[in-house]
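Field reference: sequence -> structure
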Amino acid sequence: MSTTTAGNIATSEDIDEIEQNGAFVRQNNHFPPFGDGPDELPVEADRYRLLWTPFALDPSCGDSQGIARIRIGYQPK
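Structure field:
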């Protein structure tokens, strides 16, 4: 399998997320946190939005909580 990296983020989990003993170790979060600190993103009203879709190119990447909400008919307005 070919593996590459983009910056500090691995494009293949084999590079940074699988240890030699086979254990899975998740990568660190590369997004800055929200807050008032020097390395944090400021919180601003109506600046950010969350987009979600139940469709994924890889079936194992589906968001089971979101899909369950659709199936039981819970659609927040």
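Note: The CA atoms of residues 6 and 14 lie 14 Å apart.
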